[in-house]
Design goal:
The complex is a heterodimer of chains A (about 575) and B (about 90).
Chain A (H helix, E strand, L loop, with lengths): L9 H11 L4 E7 L2 E7 H17 L7 E5 L4 H12 L3 E4 L6 H11 L3 E5 H8 L11 E5 L11 E2 L19 E8 L6 E6 H14 L7 E4 L6 H12 L4 E5 L4 H11 L3 E4 L1 H16 L3 H17 L6 H7 L1 H6 L6 E4 L6 H9 L4 E7 L4 E5 L12 E2 L4 E5 L7 E6 L6 E2 L3 H7 E2 L2 E10 L5 E6 L4 E2 L5 E2 L1 H4 L10 E6 H4 L10 E6 L8 H13 L8 E4 L14 H11 L6 E2 L1
Parallel strand pairs in A: 1-11, 3-4, 3-5, 5-6, 6-7, 10-11, 10-12, 12-13, 13-14, 26-27
Antiparallel strand pairs in A: 1-2, 8-9, 9-19, 14-15, 15-16, 17-18, 18-21, 20-21, 21-22, 23-24, 25-26, 27-28
Helix pairs in contact in A: 1-2, 1-3, 2-3, 4-5, 6-7
Chain B lengths: L9 H16 L12 H5 L3 H15 L14 H9 L3
Helix pairs in contact in B: 1-4
The chains are: A alpha/beta (about 575), B mainly alpha (about 90).
Amino acid sequence: MLDFHKYNSLGEALRDALDRWPDEICLIEADRERENVRLTYRQFKEIAHPLAGALQVARFANGARAAIIMTNQSKWLISAYAIFFCGGVLVPLDYKLTPAEQLKLLAHSQAEYLFVEYHLWRAITQDEAFVDFGPRAVLVTEAPASADLKGALRWEEFRGTYDPVFVPRRRQETACIVYSSGTGGRPKGCVLTHENYLEQCLALTSLYPFWPGVRYLSILPTNHAIDFMVGFIGPFTCGATVVHLRTLRPEYIRDAFTRYKITYMSLVPMVLKNLERGLRQRFEELPKGRRKLLNAAIRVNRAFTRNKPNLKMSRALLRQVHEAFGGGLQALFVGGAFTEPKTLEFFYDLGIPVGNGYGCTEAGTVITVNDLKPFRSDTVGKPLPGVEVKITNPDAEGIGEVAVRSKMIMSHYLDDPEMTAETIVDDWLMTGDLGRTDTTGHLQLFGRKKNMIVTEEGKNIYPEDIENAFEGLPVKEFCVFAANYLWPARTMIGEKLVLVAHLELGKAFTEDLAAAIAERNRRLLNYKRISGYFVWARDFPLTASLKVKRGELAEQIRQSASREAVISL
Amino acid sequence: MARYQFMSTLQQTTDDVLKLAANHFRVPREQLSPDDDFFKKLGINSLQALDLLTRLEQHFHIELPDYELAGVSDFRTLAERIQSRL
């Protein structure tokens, strides 16, 4: 592993990694049963440097912002490295956003360059907001030979012929602008420095080290803070291998474990639960005798791993289960949203440790993670080395807002000093999550203080961001809230959004209105949809500039309406 | 890869999609209609929807990249995406 203390930037650390392990495999890109790409660190450099060279010929300036919109694939990492090499600022955007949302974030980030897959580029160019497209250069990957690229260049042909010059950056300078949400309303562009990432890498690898030979299966989008760190920067700076899967189909994920002998994988609760469901189903299909044997082996494993994992023993006891995971799996990491303890226990009992963690983009990815000494399914682990966690204004049960301080905390929100000041108070990041630390230093989470939800896929949804979808409803005014914000519930499971509608004077709630709400809701992406609505009889409290005072309205609703008032959609 | 039986009309494709979804998720076929939101109607998440996509690929003998499902939540649009590849 590299000595992270001696580096000033991600580009510098990655550059050294490519030279330090030239013959190790750094990257495998698989698509279904096909393997598209397999690169050593030397070969990675041989592709990335001509790209960096061409960028420099195109006068890519120090500090220039370059966005990437791609699914998980080798060109994502190659492009990111070239951007860092040239002293650029990376803006990783979510390929699952709509083209309109991507255009909005491109404009907000003021990205000058865009690296994008052809099918995504085609969708962007067909959006009506494309007329305001900002970047001055676009590199498109995998475009068909006859495709009209609308002025973009082909990534594969964009190659310089001379050696690029490495552009150094300082630790405190911006490495990435990562959008934690805000696609519909107020964009939340987290400005993360090189120091944020280098410190995070140091802390994470001290707990879960990578080394040459380790294979990390990358299925979370690389734009996601977790995969960027654990599925790119972490393995690359330790000489390990990243295996990219271009599909999230469960059967190909299962296949990748055995085909590539995976060591680690990060996932979100939804994927973990899906794996659990599949395994439970297979266990149920076993003949009665074999199921009994399996259950006995699980009980023995549980008893002998109570204090710490014992992979060797677990692999011997539950050989077939471990072989189905390739036989080399050391741990799964789960984060991005709340994971139910019974799911974590299910895997741990099989001898597959799950490093359950908690974090957010603003905190530089991970805040706490389970160190498995011993395994705890009821917490999100202890703070990473170098991270301080405190509970602010705790109630009688010790529960209060989780605040975090470390060198990993983002610098600020891009172009939003007001929101930055609300979020970072005296160097402490106010997470908006409610938690409590126990006597062993483990953090337990109990819900949210802020008006937001996190889906099982690890997506942050801010209700105000989806209100656009309901514009034009024939009502006097409306607002969208997280149900748990209106009616605090000490849970992080099953979070829902509700629409509060205030009707025009003298108007009744009609079936047409219900249909209009349902119709607009359908236009939203599945995970952004509201689950119900209710009618509020009073005027919304407004600011002088006629904006809804959300906090005040929520308080009024909290006091005079209950959750039962919500009509399900 | 063999093409799906000659030329299938969009209506046939939609019918097949509904039949396969009903089978796959064990719900009565008559409870599903083309404009249904399959996430809601079948009570599934995006991964389970990808599972269905695999089943559809096998049936129609086509390959559908995951991104084809992005933003799609009703059977009719799903059938249109399939039809465009037949």
